[in-house]
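Dear support,

Our group has been running a series of protein-ligand predictions, and this particular one with adenosine-5'-diphosphate is the one our PI (initials K.S.) wants archived with full inputs and outputs. We had some confusion internally about which version of the output was final, so please treat the block below as the authoritative record. The input we submitted was:
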Amino acid sequence: MSDAIKKDGAREAAEQTPVMRQYFAAKAAHPDCLMFCRIGDFYELFYEDAIVASRELQLTLTARDREKKQPMCGVPYHAAEQYIQRLLRKGYRIALCEQMEDPKLTKKIVRREVTRVLTPGTVVDSGLGAEQSNWLASVCVRGSGGASCVGLALLDLSTGEFRVTEFAGSAAWSQLVDELERVRPVEMLMAEAGIAVLGEGKQPTLRGTTAKDRPPNSAGPHDAAADAMFEGVRTKTALEDWVFTADYAVPLLLRQFGVHSLDGMGLAGHDAAAAAAGAAVHYLQKTMQGGLEHIDTIRFYERSGCLVLDAVSVRNLELVEPLFSGESAQTTLFHTLDACCTPMGKRLLRATLLRPAADLAEVEARLDAVGEAAGDLPRREELRRAMGGVLDMERLLGRVALDSAGPREVMALAETLARLPGVRDAVWSFKAARWVELGRQGRSSAEISTRRSTENSTGNSTGLAGDARSFSTVISTAQAVGFDAMEDLQRRISETIVDEPPINFADGGVIRTGVDAELDELRQLGRSGRQALAAIEERERQRTGIGSLKVRFNSVFGYYLEVTKANSRSVPADYERKQTLVNAERFTTPELKEYEAKILTAQERSGEIERRIFAELRKSLLEAAGRMRETARRVAEIDMLASFAHLAALRGWVRPEVEVSGLLEFVAGRHPVVERRMEESGGGRFVPNSISLEGWFGGSAANPNHGDKTAMNGAPESVRCSSIALITGPNMGGKSTYLRQAALLVVMAQCGCFVPAERMRLGLVDRIYTRIGASDNVARGRSTFMVEMTETAAILNTATARSLVLLDEMGRGTATYDGLSLAWATVEFLHERIGARTLFATHYHELTLLEERLARLKNMRVTVKETAAGIVFLHTVEPGAASKSYGIEVARLAGLPVGVIARAREVLKLHERAETQQVGAALPRASGELPGPALQMTMFTPLSQKIVDRIAAVDVDGLTPREALNLLAELQRELGASS
Ligand code: ADP
Ligand code: MG
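Confirmed final output from the archive:
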């Protein structure tokens, strides 16, 4: 809407109607909200809000005035919730401007006020899937550059889960982006200053951030990084800067949690985190009224100790969401692994896939538990059966806290609680340490967290991930923890509420007999009153001789005697007429009035008592929120591990051997998702493949033979000692699948899941990187070459010898020689400097030459068979380089004219000859020696070799500045001459 219209409208409205004056006042106070203004039976929206809402909800746009300068649209009050829910899902904020007086009772204009602000992060979406979470994120930024510290608080109102973390240093921003991408909050809070900076795309450089879906032709790659912050989160809300100060946040949190210090929650020394958390609580208090009792604790978590998956890898590997939005979720690893019985289990599985463990003790503990359950069908089935009826405890509790739980929900909670002892007993039948720990009863959390961190530091002495703590450095308030089956609470509910309560509380009869003496008495009174009425009816029928006479009740007239018109002559004189209808007349008598009064007072009073008792019950449930959440956490883990065990047994998966080393080996591995989909669609069998890689730890490798390739030729170890597999072969051969399979098996293993392979041996991985060359993503119109290079830079800057790097078709997005050169140099860098286990799928056959030069690189190829009927992809990966002429063969089979094929062969020969000469010139040294920088530079421009030699020969320390300048000028002249 143009400002002109706005001003016009504002002026006219101000002149014309008081309602619009109210509207403008409300809108001015909540400019970022769609204003739902209650007028009679409708919520009306005006001006720009009306235009937006009519577009998003497909409502008819009308206007308040004839000139159509004041657009408006409306939704019926009673159906408003669904419309509101739809708008929230699209990321809008909504303010409800309600009538504060009953229009019937006032002659003046009804007073209107904004009573609630609804936002995606503060309203629980009734359509929320069990495995989804409704995260509200809050980000607090301190400092900049290398000194920056970013606090991130995450709160899920639907379950009450509240956690917080901090990122520090120059990588803080990219870590934040990755974390946001993983968590996918529906709304994000930031200080006004922060949002402004983001909006201009000027935040500290987001190095290592990623390409996201973005419309083609949108701004360049630099903005892509800025957008990355934006894209995952639909709603960004600015709060005033002071909200993010520790002075404000800390007391607020202390009040909310009812504690004297935040140290026990792990927040000591984490100011930015505390401020972020405080801002979240502030925001909830501001937008909602009450209902925050279940937010009673927070935990500080750290990413260390986890297998780090950056945002791009999470996407490319399709861990929890399909790569192409709109595609079915069946392509995800989550879908394939989800055999969980409970919603808590599903949510944990999803979260675990995004942060697998990187701690040996942790992974082993899970695998032990899974192994025991996998091998014991009866016990496993018993455990899974016991969890069968367990509903979403956390969500139910959330609804109790938000006061939206009716008696039936509370009863459902009781039924779920009733199943817990069964779950606990089933867990007790297992012996693995993790099962014992999960089923253990009552311990203080402080004890557990200290024990965990000591356990983990012993795990760490084996060397992984620096200061790694357990994946769950859970430090919560001093609550009783352990598997608390909460029999007391269950008893309390089922002893308070009747077995089959009415849906609506107002219908009464929710509370059991025997709970409250007065209630029982009142009910008795009501019952005897009703009996008395029945007796009156019977007696009056006799007395008047009107067989159809009835005693009835309605809310306006209370109790009355109804007689049809035809019988009205027989009505006795002592009846008082109350109302005349078309066919009947209604009467009352003093006796009836007396009973009416008794019954109604009794009902009113018993309603009050029921409400009071229900409120008390609600309160005690909320007091037990901490116990319930801890138990829910345990049930979630039990469920997830039992589900892994179930899959292992069902699908014949094996236990991976995990260790702290650089190895990655599997024999006859299968891609879990592709295999499952092929089975389901009857599309043939997945061809198993093996892999064997070993990361190289910067010269101090486990195997001293590194670097001396000739010595190992032919020996089986030669395969093992490769850290890089370079995979070539035709399109559709299975390269990408092979790469992803390797990563997925690693993710599964480090989640504690068994894997689809005959055997797997894995040295724990600290990070996984997955990059896909530009052209594979052209369909999405998102990836530019620049973005691909940004991603590659992130790998080369942050990968370690413990990492797993997947590069698929790198360098496709640019000219052949550019792409080839970059790919070449990248492989060398990975080989020399990083030593990460690397799978590099490429269409650049030239790269296969690297095998001769790089000791720890081996060629692999995907195989095909040519038959008379055409090409058959065998999908087997075997050692060796792919045949170079393959592309032309495919073209021939595809029916390209013979002349074209022949000419293509000629051209190819020319190119090959030229290339061999050049590359040959670049390969003067004995194989086995590390390639010097000269080799890298001269690959395609042998003429510069001379210059390179000169530079190499210079004694830099002995040069005066002038000599250096002269040398530089000379070199430049020479370069100019040679090109
Ligand atoms: P590339 O990356 O070499 O072009 P892809 O990995 O995309 O090939 O695989 C092409 C097709 O082959 C996919 O449809 C995939 O499902 C199928 N495929 C890949 N590997 C296997 C395998 N090991 N067994 C059966 N089918 C496979
Ligand atoms: Mg591919």
